Amino acid sequence: MSVLQWFVDLGASVMLPILLFIFGIILGTKPGKAFKAGLTVGIGFVGLNLVIGLLTSSLGPAAKAMVDHFGFKLGTIDVGWPAAAAISYGTALGSLAIPLGIGINVVLLITGLTRTLDVDIWDYWHCAFTGSLVYALTGNFALGLYTIAVHLIVIFFLGDLIAKDISKFYGFRNITFPHGASAPSYLVAKPLNWVFDRIPGFNKLEANPETIQKRIGIFGDSTVMGVLIGIIIGILAGYNVKEVLQLAVQTGAVMMLMPRMVSLLMEGLSPISEAASEFVRKRMPGRDLYIGMDSALSVGHPAVLSASLIIVPITLFLAVILPGNKVLPFGDLATIPFLVCLMTPVFRGNIIRTVVAGTIYMAIGLLIASWAAPLITHSALAAKFDMGGNTSISALVDGAVWTTFIFVGLAKVISWLGITIIGAVAVGGLVYMNKIKPRRAAKLENSNSAKMG
């Protein structure tokens, strides 16, 4: 267990290169090529984290200044996903998420119930998070572990479900994002998009980055949009001219640098993805595998970043006016792109739709994060996490994600049965997508061939 904890503590930027190197060798990639691919991905993650760090260090103080400027008072602090991950992996229960996840993924792959080969095992902390909250609520270790297992099945189901839209919108071939914070928003975006399509006038609005740039020229450029949004946030924060300009350039820099870091990640992933496709083609004809990766690959898209930066001040405004909210958004403001990045493909890059849907999502999420705050605080104390003098903490990632509410809520109301219901739905979805649907398609194809013959 101590060896596993040591490996987890290496973080995604070190874990992923090691895992990708191992997977590359297993898939038949030459050692030198596999090593360089893994290293490139690791460097890409370092670069991405530096850019996110820049966004955090610029948006964090601006958010605090905005709160102070308008005299907002909220009793629970959003400590951010790094703290939530540390809390999740800080207990014996949470540290079991990785071996459990690997085992379940292997079983589902062998039985053909999933197409997702998930190498992003560090992000199993999202499942450890819900398991830890259920344990904090019930005091039942076995139920907490069962929750982790079922949540893992859910994210493999979501990985299979979203893969085609990811390929179509982002252009990532055979890659998916079974990410506990990002993937759930896809299921919210689908019905919202159906509603948006039926609102007269609204359904005609085209607001993807390319359309915006055509209509308003340089002001539609994603980097310039980042600068303008930075200026607005700086003014709302009560900054002086110097501070506003500095924030503007920093947000513009994020808009320019984030896509380049994602390109570096894709450069490293391409050889592994190609090797996986070839491996499956030879050994499992008729099957496609998706490489499960961190949704960080998608957050560099201009539509995602533009919408996310607009949602930041909206989220702060919602936190103040929303009845029942107790959470002051802070640590996870810079990670809002991770919460909306899988909404954007559903809306085909439409920034207006993403902002509207993201606003609805964050409003509900703030209430969930407020509801979960006592359990998150309890879990933090159990993991001996330094709360920095705060008596109540929460996090938008994953405290504001609807799956947290469903898992913990059902565990509270009907215990084992509630978690089992979620698992049954996820397994049913996997069976339909990977067993029933392909058989129906094959049967239809054979029928059509027979008619043509």
Automatic annotation (TrEMBL):
Residues 4-440 form the PTS EIIC type-2 domain. Pfam families: EIIC-GAT (PF03611). The chain crosses the membrane at residues 6-27, 39-63, 83-109, 143-163, 223-241, 289-322, 328-347, 359-380, 400-433. It is a multi-pass membrane protein. Keywords: Cell membrane, Membrane, Phosphotransferase system, Sugar transport, Transmembrane, Transmembrane helix, Transport. One of its GO terms (molecular function) is galactitol transmembrane transporter activity. GO terms for cellular component: plasma membrane. GO terms for biological process: phosphoenolpyruvate-dependent sugar phosphotransferase system. It comes from the Bacteria. It is found in: Cell membrane. PANTHER family: PTS SYSTEM GALACTITOL-SPECIFIC EIIC COMPONENT. This is PTS galactitol transporter subunit IIC. It comes from Heyndrickxia shackletonii.
